[in-house]
Amino acid sequence: MGKAGVRLLAGMLLAWAVCGGVWARPTQAATAWQVKIGGESADHALQAQAFLPTSITIDEGDTINWTMNAAFVHTVTFLSGGPVPPEPIPAGEDGLLMLNPQNAFPVGGPNYDGTGFVGSGIIDAKGKSFALTFTKAGTYGYVCLLHPGMAGQVVVQAAGSAYPMTQAQVDAQANAELYAKLGQANQQLQGAQLKSQANSDGTTTYTVNNGVGGNQSSVLRFLPVDVTVKAGDSIAFPVNDPHEIHTVTFYDPAGQVPPFLDPRPQPSGPPKLIIPHAMPQGGNRVEDPKTLYNSGIVVPGQSYTFTFPKPGVYTYVCVIHAPQGMFGKITVEAAGTPASLPRTGASVGDGSPLPLLGGALLLLLLGALTRGIWRRRLS
Fold first, then answer.
1. Which of 31, 50, 161, 166 would suit a FRET pair with 261, their CA atoms being 20 to 30 Å apart?
2. Are residues 167 and 33 in contact, defined by beta-carbon separation less than 8 angstroms?
């Protein structure tokens, strides 16, 4: 072999030595991961206000698909250290309020490098999803803008790093967290009781829980659901759940349930999501079963009280959580009639007990187991 041939062969060997490692180790394909958004009991009363699992570790270039695991509403939002957008905001007409479009509609994506505001907007049905690809190593927190305290974390490793968990293990962790949170919600449900306080004028003020919750779990029910009082008595409805807002809205049961949102199309861009019943309406003395009486939005830690001067049967709802079955009934008897025990777990209009956790509780027993966006008082 001549000198030229030797030099050519040496060059080829050198190139192989330098680049051979790349040839020998094919680039690892990016992975798509699955994370659940929330979860619920069969009757929608018990809600896990969490991303499941709460934390996941992936590599640069990987994608996460967040999928709604409940017939509910949430967002997946990366603030990147920025402030939480205000919610709700003035609608610019007749003193009405509306959802903030920055929170309600998708912003940014489909890639995320740890900077900027990136959000899914409202994900409003079970099975709907939001995907984001992570292009830079780091640890990133994210939140649901609708439920204070609902937060998750994504740890992004350098590309090619070994994964600490498989998708099957991620799923198992998600299910364990889900059943634990639903179990907490069930305990909160069982612990909620009707309270009463005698007044100097001979009337009584009762306390009905306007939802209960905490530790990333919620019960979307008035507790008790069905209450009997006397004419002249009052009922206070405190919100004892740091994750939720509620209303107490009395309406004619022969008509439609008052809506929470009224979408109004605009000449361009997304519609305005008006909240028609964000403020109190009708006063706090409920006298006509067919008239609208509304507390407006009641935020965590606040309460609203209604007085019932006349006998009758009054149906009410949380307009925000009507799709989840949050209804109640107040039976007002004439003063002086014998007292009756309250029903603590029946749905409105039937005699059946409120379904409990069902299959989720069974799995729990088997061992398979606040930044307040809405906290500012509405003015």
1. 50
2. yes
pLDDT at 338: 64
pLDDT at 7 over 90: no
Q: Give the predicted TM-score (pTM) of the model.
A: 0.82
Contact indicator for 154, 118 with CB cutoff of 8 Å: no
Phi, psi of 34 (to 5 degrees): -115, 130
**pLDDT tens track for 267-298:** 999 999 999 999 999 999 999 999 999 999 99
**Mode of pairing for the β-strands spanning 32-40 and 234-238:** unpaired
In whole angstroms, give the CA distance from residue 185 to residue 216. Answer: 9
Q: What is the mean pLDDT of residues 315-319?
A: 98
Measured between alpha carbons, how far apart are the two ends of the chain, in Å?
92
Domains of the chain: 32-186 (2.60.40.420), 191-363 (2.60.40.420)
Task: Report in angstroms the alpha-carbon separations of 2 from 7, 9, 160, 165, 324.
Answer: 9, 11, 43, 56, 85
